Amino acid sequence: MKLHILHTNDLHGHLEKWDVLAESIQKRRSDIERRGDFCLVCDVGDAIDTVHPLIEASQGSVIVDLFNKANYDVVTIGNNEGLNLSKMQLNKIYSKAHFSVVCANLIDRTTNRLAAYAVENQIFDFPFGQIAFLGLTAPYYTYKYNGYMPLDIFRTLSQQLRLLSTRSIKPVKIILLSHLGYQNDRIIAQHFPEINLILGGHTHHLIENGEKVYRSLLSACGRFGEYLGEVIFDIETGEVNASTQSYTTLQSNINHLSSDHYQKTGESLLKKHVFAKLPVSIYSSEIKGRHSFVQHAFKAIQLETGCQLAFMSTGLFLNDLPKGLLSMNQLHVALPHSIRAMTLELKGWQLEELLEEIEKQQIALENKPIFGNGFRGKFFGKMIFKGIVYDQSSKQWLINDKPINTNQIYHLASLDHYAYIPFFPSIMKYSRPNIIFPKFLRHILKDYFEGQFPLNEGVNYD
């Protein structure tokens, strides 16, 4: 008698691989159950990523629909679900779920309880006993802006294991869905030997054939649907084995090509959402004037935050916006990032230190590839300033044409991405960024364009 655990993690909206993954999961489960063995299917978070147009258009619900069709049993959430969608959105989409969402370390600040869509553990009954699933997600401090209180992962895990130990029927296996990263998984394995299996994610690590750490087995499937994992518990012998299969292998086994039909469906839906009429074309390569994408972005975040000083990089803007009707698809293609506006409060001397950090790295960063932390483009680009200039003649920074007052407090608007990447440590050293939830930069620009260039006004600047 065997229990098979099929697992995925960090899909990040790569739905071009989904049909192959889903068919492989269903076929494997069918084969397992036909032999009289048992199977559970789980995901370890960050399946939702609004870089994909269909996920953007459906506000994540397409992932729940696909997991339902593939007969997933239990999932945890990653930061892409927990931070990129509101509690209301997650409550709505997970209300349709045929699977459980287990996550014990996010508390709703309004109710002081677990989020309505989540459970602290999930127990599955089998003839050989009970299997318990726990779930934890990376406790970013920014969760407070989205209405959560993230809990300490180790204290939470201790409490959950204590609860399981007090049950009248104790589980024969405890499995942790850990969207915490590889290093945390190893620490957990060393300190919590009662956990039999840790399925990992978040750091996109691949453990092809499992890794034994003390008494626990670790397994993980990399990222983007590139692997499907399987862990097999032999209930009679106690033996446990882990393996992964690459997407290429899965694809060859079922003779199924990758598909872009999800992409086309999402683009079609977003194209229907037309919200503004641009009087001129706007170009990602322009940095000044009415045709400049970055200058319109400055105006948008100034309206959103009330700050007149701002900075952002040109690498954010991936496409131009042509004159005429503007759709959400065009804006999504140009700004697919999961990046929000933030405000900073800095004394003049702190601001000068930040500006020097930026200026010293301008050339090195301009063509530097950037990955993660919400960024979905290719290169960093050049940092552009609003209301801030460097005067070559006096060799000093000017704010609205005046030298910086070292003791004055300045308020600036920018993007949270710059607080997460390692190039500008002064941001976190001197300020606690106030991140503006829930809108991403593209949604802030959508509101700006809709207000400035409404569909019912025939403005023409040419």
Automatic annotation (TrEMBL):
Annotated keywords: Hydrolase, Nucleotide-binding, Signal
Keyword Acyltransferase recorded: no
Protein family according to the UniProt entry: Belongs to the 5'-nucleotidase family.
Superkingdom to which the source organism belongs: Bacteria
Signal peptide (from-to): none
GO terms of biological process kind: nucleotide catabolic process
GO MF entries: 5'-nucleotidase activity; metal ion binding; nucleotide binding; UDP-sugar diphosphatase activity
Record domain 5'-Nucleotidase C-terminal: where: 293-419
Record InterPro entries: 5'-Nucleotdase_C, 5'-Nucleotdase_C_sf, 5'-Nucleotdase_CS, 5_nucleotidase/apyrase, Calcineurin-like_PHP, Metallo-depent_PP-like
Organism listed in the record: Facklamia miroungae
Residue ranges of every copy of the Calcineurin-like phosphoesterase domain listed in the record: 4-205
Keyword set includes Lipoprotein: no
One Pfam family from the record: 5_nucleotid_C
A GO cellular component entry from the record: outer membrane-bounded periplasmic space
Protein name: 2',3'-cyclic-nucleotide 2'-phosphodiesterase/5'-or 3'-nucleotidase, 5'-nucleotidase family
